[in-house]
Amino acid sequence: MGLYEKASEEFDFWRVRVREASYAELDQISRERGLSLSAREMKLLQEYYKKIGRDATDVELEAIAQTWSEHCGHKTFKGSFALVERDERGREKKSKVDNLFKTYIARATRELALPWCYSVFEDNAGIVDFDGDNALAFKVETHNHPSALEPFGGAATGVGGVIRDVLGVWADPIANTDVLCFGPLDLPEQRVPSGVKHPRFLYNGVVAGIACYGNNMGIPTVNGAIFFHENYTGNPLVYCGTLGLLKKSAYKHEAAAGDALVLVGGRTGRDGIHGVTFASAGLHEKSEETSRTAVQIGDPIEEEKVKRGILQVRDAGLANAITDLGGGGLSSAVAETAERYSCGVRVDLSLVPQKYPLKTPWEIWVSESQERMLLAVPQRNVEAVKKIFEDELVLATVVGELTAERNLRLFYKNVAVADIDMNFLFTQPTTAKGAVLAKTKPNPLSFNEPASPQEYGVILKKILSSPNVCSKESVVRRYDHEVKGSTTIKPFQGASNEGPGDAAVIRPLRDSWKGAALSNGFNSLFASDAYKMAASAIDEAIRNNVCVGGRRWALLDNFSWGNPNDERQAGGLVAASRACYDYALAFRAPFISGKDSLHNECNGVAIPQTLLVSALGIVPDVRKAITMDAKKTGNYLYIVGETKLELGGSHYCAALDASEAGVIPGVDGARAATLYEAVLRAMDAGLVRSCHDCSEGGMAVAAAEMGFAGGLGVEIDLTQVPRAADVKRNDFVLFSESNSRLLIEVEPDKAKEFEASLKGITFGRIGVFTQNPDFVVKVFDGTEILRENVFELKRVWQKPLKR
Amino acid sequence: MKKSDVRVCIVRAPGTNCDAETLDGVIAAGGTGEIVHFNRLHGGSRKLEDYDALIFPGGFSYGDEIRSGVIWARKFLGLLGDDLKKFVDAEKPVLGVCNGMQVIVESGLLPGLRGASEAPEACMASNASARYECRWIFLKKTGDCLFTEKYAQGEVVEMPVGHAEGKFTLEPGREQKILDELEANKQIVFRYCRADGALARGEYPLSPNASLDDVAGVSNPSGTVFALMPHPDRSCFGWQRRDWTRTGKVDGEGDGLRIFKGLVDYCAKKF
Amino acid sequence: MRFEVRVSFKPGVLDAEGNAALDALKSLGFKASGVATAKVYYIETAEPQARVEEMCRKLLANPIIQDYRISKV
């Protein structure tokens, strides 16, 4: 007798003999059906079917595999780690960490218990208060694996998916953000692994996909970043984020047994079958052939119509609950809705509108066709809801209802194809993994200081024109960042709109001057120390937010990691999660939502451990927001924060082919928090004309950018830069990438007041903006160690990605 | 009528996405407006004739398939052609912004040298960069129509553009002849230019699309139908300006608002 | 009946997408001297060819910049 038995003559439906299967056969079932379930999980499943006294159906196996997948269940983050910490001398300390999410990320939020956190870790997007009546919803998602195979479709549906996350909390999507990581654009063909597409192809496709979806839906893409590293070649990262606005009174999540489940939006096809189980495994040479169906096609106009309908249903209060269809399709949306409201559910799969006749019920259940949302609607409102969608030319179909009985029951052509106990379905197995955290001694900085202003100039230009520092304007202008007319602080700033802004400010309501500031922080060149990498990402996201006047930060974490079964990868996860806890507390900036994408590797090469932190801040009055461009000749330039001997992972070291040298920058959370508070006070007092963050390339790059953005020169006296005692060289001062530092422009007649407002904070008045368009750096005896024309620096900075 | 009685129909189709900010502009100009789905205007609950002005806002109507704006243009003519003709004949203002300009040009309403034409007389072709371009540009008033009476002749203003198909194109070989006629009629209302008012002469990115003769906005000969690629709806207020942190002009008007004021004032005077 | 309608740019009209493709091909090391794009529609209809012509004039092609060619397939 085989493992599978045909269970219907009419359609494609099978019974799977799990009860009597051997270990090897259970493993065979998991592999053959692409379930991505472990031996332990298959065993758990077998025990359930033994207990209920029958075999499984193929639909049930698929439903369970979706719910238990890494993508939906986050079993690694919720699992345990046997941690071994090894110091520089090889001494070991052993401990056990249970549930990274609860122990670190959510714990910080809970301990902070900030009253403005409206709904955190509940829905697919976190929600914070905006102005009492209104709230902001924020979410950033990854869409890495689909984008590796089909960059345009993968990225477009990544945007479409995160917009639905925000619609799924009844919020109107008002701004997008995106962060992209690729292999080097000039990578020689022979260095591109077999089965992998060239970074330039991926880059072009991903950018076009993001532009297409956001622009077509009329949601401004206001902020983001692009980063290049060879280890992203086989596995690019595509982070898509959306900010939404909702009235708190319209946030309705109170479904109950008897409510109709209304599926709205696009028809269901074979798109994206097994997307979540695909996302929960690594990429390999044959991924393209085996996973083509895991990539979806997007239709932004459909989603735009769906959005219009949902906002009308919301405003009329016609539905009790809403959720989006993303990874896992109907399976996740329906099961999670039922679970959330302690219900069971009954769905007739033959009622689901199909693109073409689908004769396989499990495919309808797990399909990830795009632009679909699920509403729980009281029966009396069903007709009114259908009318709204009909007027928007959108399909809305009752496919089932919530039940009091706690079972998931699925039918297809009047045949019961699944009946699973909800309690079993949501008894999610977690994992137990080993983790190693080993401290290593930093390599010494063994290169010499540049010997002449010419040499300094060459290096500054090399950094400005390096892929991770150079202007991304040619990409950003393909994203509509002005639609909706709310973008008050724009991505490009200055005299001729060419300076790189630190954060965007949106003014979402016409009757309030309050604004929302969006920023991101990440630097995977710091990945050799996951704790500091995460700390730096948090500091940078907040620092960028401060630059425009943002405060009261809510954070999102987005982990993109390699295979968590590798002890060092797992160790990095633990370290980064610890940093999330420590710095969320230090900055009083809670995490409100997040995402983890694991198994980001290709043919065994893992990506750099990457934590993207996105910050959402509040600007009390957008008319006081600040930009980064130098405003006026004669104004002073200040640096706030201390420069330390932290050149590990710096662009300076990279420019000198010494990437492995130096100490990775850390963050003194308490000092940084005090510093940012002081800067914000100075901004509120009207003392700050411009503010720019020191990050990639250090203060040299930041000062040059401020100058050329404003069309002004800048003259710096390097001796005035406050530094740690061990920073003894000029090049280290100029190019150290120490965190928590800002450059600030102040008018001379406000200098005294400004300095008084920074009492107790480390700062230095380091220079002045000049009509003469030269970037000049002098040292103690007035010797010039650098002199470059700012327009030439701008040209060099703009050239690499000009087209 | 009073300004506040001026009723503007901001029509939308699937994919229209600038209707809300367009309504903001109409309201800031003193009028009242309503966002109306195109399907409500034909065989539905609303009648075009009940409105004093019509605006086709920006977006991607029907996904901009086939050519930007053409599907909506042809559907509009097919289902509401007579109503639209009456509307235009009554000299009620019709404004198209961005996708709205693409719709109006594809509908044959503009440039409308011999009245509305059956086949389009112009085309909004792909930008020379072959890309979507979102940026602020300088515009010079070089013509006139009812929407632009509040701008001085030759005045330079700033608005953002956001489009991939904005290259105004005329029939090859006859361009100069048609341009001369448009120029004589003052129909080329806005041209892309430099900050000092010198014309862009197709130079990127001053002209984001390499439009023929720097054309950014055109009207019909009588000036009651007007369309432009730049977005007045995104430049109605000081805080929307690209450089308000430099100039401090955060509380005042944006340069685009006067287009809506022109529309509302015209209606208030005429009807 | 199935018609193939091919819509292409008139000679002399800028083919931005074609130029972009040419540029990209060259950057990938291919030798090419020109790329032109065209759109092809396959139309299932019982209408005569004259009506298909009308479809082109009314919707599928803008005569200012585009030519079209109809063939039965």
Summarize the SSE layout with pairings.
The complex is a heterotrimer of chains A (803), B (271) and C (73).
Chain A: E1 4-6, E2 14-16, H1 23-32, H2 39-52, E3 56-57, H3 58-68, H4 70-73, H5 75-78, E4 80-86, E5 92-98, H6 100-112, E6 117-119, E7 126-129, E8 134-142, H7 144-149, H8 151-167, E9 172-182, H9 199-217, E10 221-228, E11 237-247, E12 260-265, H10 275-279, H11 287-291, H12 300-315, E13 321-324, H13 329-340, E14 344-348, H14 361-366, E15 372-377, H15 382-391, E16 396-403, E17 407-412, E18 415-421, H16 422-425, E19 432-438, H17 453-464, H18 473-476, E20 487-489, E21 492-493, E22 499-500, E23 504-506, E24 515-521, H19 530-547, E25 551-560, H20 567-586, E26 591-597, E27 601-602, E28 605-606, E29 610-619, E30 636-640, H21 651-655, H22 669-684, E31 690-693, H23 698-710, E32 713-717, H24 730-735, E33 742-746, H25 751-757, E34 763-770, E35 774-778, E36 784-789, H26 790-798
Parallel strand pairs in A: 4-19, 9-10, 14-17, 25-26, 32-35
Antiparallel strand pairs in A: 1-2, 2-3, 4-5, 6-7, 7-8, 8-11, 9-11, 12-15, 12-16, 13-15, 14-16, 17-18, 20-23, 21-22, 23-24, 24-29, 25-29, 27-28, 30-33, 30-34, 31-33, 32-34, 35-36
Chain B: E1 7-12, H1 19-28, E2 32-37, H2 38-41, E3 53-56, H3 70-89, E4 94-97, H4 99-106, E5 122-125, E6 133-141, E7 156-163, E8 167-170, H5 175-184, E9 188-193, E10 215-219, E11 225-228, H6 244-247, H7 257-270
Chain C: E1 2-9, H1 16-27, E2 38-44, H2 49-60, E3 66-72
Antiparallel strand pairs in C: 1-2, 1-3
